[in-house]
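Input.
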Amino acid sequence: MNHVIPRSVRFEVLSPDVAPVAPGAVYDYRLRLRGVPVRWRTLITEVDHPWSFTDVQARGPYAHFEHRHRFDAWEGGTRVGDVIRYRPPGGPLAGVVNQVVARELWLLFKTRHRRLAELYTAHADGGPDPAGLL
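Output.
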């Protein structure tokens, strides 16, 4: 599998049949955050096909986590963007926790965007379609 998320996260989709992205779809995952095993469930809350979709954490490590995926026409191709709104766990220590969380999220999405660019550049050069690989 072509990983767009750092391998250290050990991201695994648990949902047996990954349904099309549609409002109400639920996805279950297993991953590691800083080595700690985590189960995560997301709920698709909004879809504006083919331009964007939003998922929110229904169960997981954050007090709140919302991820809007954007796809915009750009220079003859597609630009992928992410808008993340989150509140870390930790109650009164959330500010301290956020120093670590913000850096981890930045690194994760930096890796994701770099890998997507690599995969789609390879596809433009005659390689396999990344949509079938991810």
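The longest helix spans residues 94-124.
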